[in-house]
Amino acid sequence: MSNKTRAPGLVRRRLAVGATAALLGAAVAVGSGLGTAASAADPVSLTGVILGVGADESQRVLTWYSSADTAQKVQLAPTAALVNGEFPATAAAFDAIGGANIATSGGYNRHATITSLKEKTRYSYRVGGDGAWSPTYSFQTQDFEGDYDFLFFGDPQIGSSGDTLKDQAGWEETLKVATAANPNAELLVSGGDHVESANNESQWTSFLAPDQLRQYPVVATIGNHDVGGKAYEQHHFTPNTDRSAPYYDNGNPAGTKSGGDYWFVYKDVLFIDINSNSYAVPAGGGNVGDSAHVAYITDVINKHGAEAKWKVLVYHHSIYSPASHATDTDNKDRREHFTTAFSQLGIDMVLQGHDHSYSRSYAIKNGQKADPDEQPGAAEVFPGPGGVIYVTANSASGSKYYDIKKPDATGTGIRGNGPDPLNPDSYWYNSVQNQEHVRSYVKVQVRADKLVLENLRSGTCAAPNASVEKGSWCYNTSEAQPVGSIVDKVTVRPYHGSGQDVQVAVPNPAPGEFGWTIDGYNGLVDLGTAQERNGTFFEATGKINPILVTDSRRSLAPWSISASAGAFRDGDKAFSGAFLGWTPFLLDAGAGAQPGAAVLSAYDDQGLGLSVARGLAAAEQGHPRGSAKLGADLSLKIPDSVDKGSYRATITITALSS
């Protein structure tokens, strides 16, 4: 999208903790159907409508059931264009495809992909055809760049309590609570096990009952209770899906295969969703099971990883969880076969279901705790290179909970379930474990410099809570732990994309006595909203985090600090670091420091700006010993021709001293 309308720009910068480098991040807003006609005597029934995620922010996928094999489509228009509820003649139409339902109660399935959506628009839609339309539903698009929130839900497993309607009530209440508290959430992400029995359409009807599933795009994940039949696939059509044998419910007969591995990019997140049911430990190697999924994830990241700042992996089988599935042999196998690859590929977070209890792992690198000193329940974590956070969601419906198990004597190896040395009641790999027998969901805030994860209560011991209603225990105290209260909250600042990159370039260091560091916390710093100037460019200003230089050497040798900025990039979009300029200054004088010369943005003088090394400060031979605190005012000026996006650049800061 070009910035020909000169929309305002949001510009941010980041600095990295470390001795020799800083990152600067910026976000600049630039500004045909099937079948034959049905008989008039047999009205077409349209049911099970669900809104799914598309390949990017501008797409959605709609899936539904039809009682007749007629030509059908999606009709779509901005809600503001409807008159008295009627769609205008200019409404867009998207033809549906599909076929006869397999191993269900009959009927036909349809799906259609909506494309070319515009941002910040409320749309209305309906499915069907002339004379037989569904009710009208609506959804809202948000800005296609920048921060957003998504919600993650564990195992509704409708029907597992033995009472489908009670399970439905809990599921509906969780979605109601979650979206009321987070009305601008942009995705509903599933951890799998939507139903108890794969082809039980009455259970699917209850799963699909909440209106939110037609208002917010759903990111579907196939669970072990969803396999063995085609209903999952008939109700969820997913983008960019590979249904090759290794990913496509490999252990079931052809007529019941369902699922596949798929991916999509939504704003700054590359989501990869795999079918962990299709899994087999390879005998003597071969591209099956674990190795096939790793190959798929690797290929997707190699091709599309640069399009996003974060990598989130979703699959059903929880490999770091606190309850009965934590000791399953197949999950121990997955730990052994997946975790090193996930670390090497730079996965930031893995979202899982299956164990009907909540857990948040420590940062796990290559199947081991990345930092032995990371404390249980830490409110802020810095996983470092290769560190991955694994999250298991509790039941979103209350249909079934699994109780937390005590650690065993298998130790802290990659397959072990021994105790945490810092918290012996928990498994070694879990920072937080929780089970109260109340419904909950996970909220993830996606920000340019962090992921903020919260596990939130969507219920109490009271109904709707099918498992408790049928006699299971419940430890929640609604006065102290009401609906909406927080079970766990953590801010994750990964190595990649969080301001923790460190780069060293010191040609002639003097050991131990000369050095510099970033002074204070060094996360992303918001430069505010770029202002339009003269209708031709945007401008944003701010300050770097101060840099503290200390020199106590007897030699009193000269020193200098300089910096250069790389290109600002967002996927395949970029603009030159030359558009960034600065004016150095001293916050605290000392160590002979003298500020460097001001550097103009290339927009002002057609020069090179900070795209080449420029001096921040320096001291001459014979300067006094001591310390200085260095600062700089940043000035970013960019032409209005820069494409809309959230851009980042790396500023490499180099210290020189003899």
TrEMBL record:
PROSITE patterns linked to this entry: TAT
Keywords tagged on the record: Signal
Segments traversing the membrane: none
UniProt KW Transmembrane keyword: no
Signal peptide: 1-40
Residue span(s) of domain Calcineurin-like phosphoesterase: 150-358
Entries under SUPFAM superfamilies matching the protein: Metallo-dependent phosphatases, Purple acid phosphatase, N-terminal domain
InterPro entries linked to this entry: Calcineurin-like_PHP, FN3_dom, Metallo-depent_PP-like, PAPs_N, Purple_acid_Pase-like_N, TAT_signal
Domain Purple acid phosphatase N-terminal: 48-141
Domain of life: Bacteria
One Pfam short name: Pur_ac_phosph_N
Record-given protein name: Fibronectin type III domain-containing protein
Source organism of the structure: Catellatospora aurea
